[in-house]
Amino acid sequence: MKKFIAILLGTAVLCGTAAAQNCSQFVNSVNGKKLTYINQDAKGNPQMTAVYTSTKKDASTISTHAEISDKNGKLMGTGDSEMICDGNAIKVDMKSFIPASSMKQYSDMKISGEAKYLTYPSNMQTGQTLDDGSVTIEMNGNGSPMTLQMDIVNRKVEQAETISTNAGSFDCFKISYEATTKVKIAGIGIPFHMKITEWYAPKLGRFVKSETYTKGGKLMGVMVLDSVK
């Protein structure tokens, strides 16, 4: 019995060490990276640029600073978020999922709010259903306070695919989900429903490509990773 317990304890220690090493590898590989995305309309015309700069916060956490600029390079807004590795999944701060269409409406935008996370399991597989997410974010655009409520539901892993962009080729999982956003000003807001398909790259902890559709299936825009430095 003592030998059996010792084996169990040893296995637990090894599993914990493996998880820590995996997180360390992920955090160190992402630390210092600058990812630049190009947002395009349905016709492929550039609309905005989003630059995410990642910095190691601790052994399991990456802090990310976002800068959003219009097609002419004028800064529209900034925001800060986090990615956390727990050995079993990468948890991405939902503030980083604010739709480009919302960002486009507000200049000098600052984002704050309680950190809530969308989970991407380390053992992701085709056909898997992923956890939903919901977050409320306080924003200040042009001196007018507003609240953005966002709900992400029906997340499903469709298949594994390799995606190539100007930034290179990435092994990804194609994930589909539905998103509802509601921007409230003075307590009044109208919900906007979207369908989204993203190609998530585990080694980046982020998507490489994302397509946004109306509830009826009409393409609204595409966001593509343009460079990694």
From TrEMBL:
Pfam families: DUF3108_like. Residues 31-225 form the DUF3108 domain. Residues 1-20 form the signal peptide. InterPro entries: DUF3108-like. Keywords: Signal. This is DUF3108 domain-containing protein.
